[in-house]
Amino acid sequence: MTIMRILKEDELTVNMIGRLETVSALKLEEEFKTSLRGVKTLIMDLEEMEYVSLEGLRVFFSAQKIMNKQGRMIVRNVNEDVMEVFREIGAVDILTIEKADFRLRDSF
């Protein structure tokens, strides 16, 4: 997994490319422990994410918990495969998911 970060003032955009599995999830979680300080808006751009494991989902929920205290988190550009996992575990009720991508046809 490749993780690209773009910080503009108090907005952090994290682009994830590849598969968010156990090892990469642990790396991302460690990075969030320091990189979210002072961030008021966290944008998780998943346009190039191919897969997310349960361990990866735990990182999303952990980041959401942090951002609930200091701002907001937006998940953007989710492909159908990842969205299906989000739906199956009820993440669509917890995460703010923008319908910015034309591939997301049905409501959630």
Q: In angstroms, what separates the terminal alpha carbons? A: 26 Å
Which residues form runs of ≥5 with pLDDT under 50?
A: 101-108
**Number of DSSP strand runs:** 4
Question: Quaternary state, please?
Answer: single chain
- Remind me, CATH topology? Transcription Regulator spoIIAA
Strands side by side in the biggest sheet: 1-2-3-4
Which terms summarize this structure?
single chain, 108 residues, alpha/beta, Transcription Regulator spoIIAA, four-stranded mixed sheet, 3 helices, 4 strands, disordered C terminus
Would you mind describing this structure in some detail?
It is a single chain. The protein contains three helices and four strands, in the order E-E-H-E-H-E-H. It has a single domain, classed as STAS domain (Transcription Regulator spoIIAA), CATH 3.30.750. It starts with a strand and ends in a 19-residue tail after the last helix. With 108 residues, the protein is an alpha/beta fold.
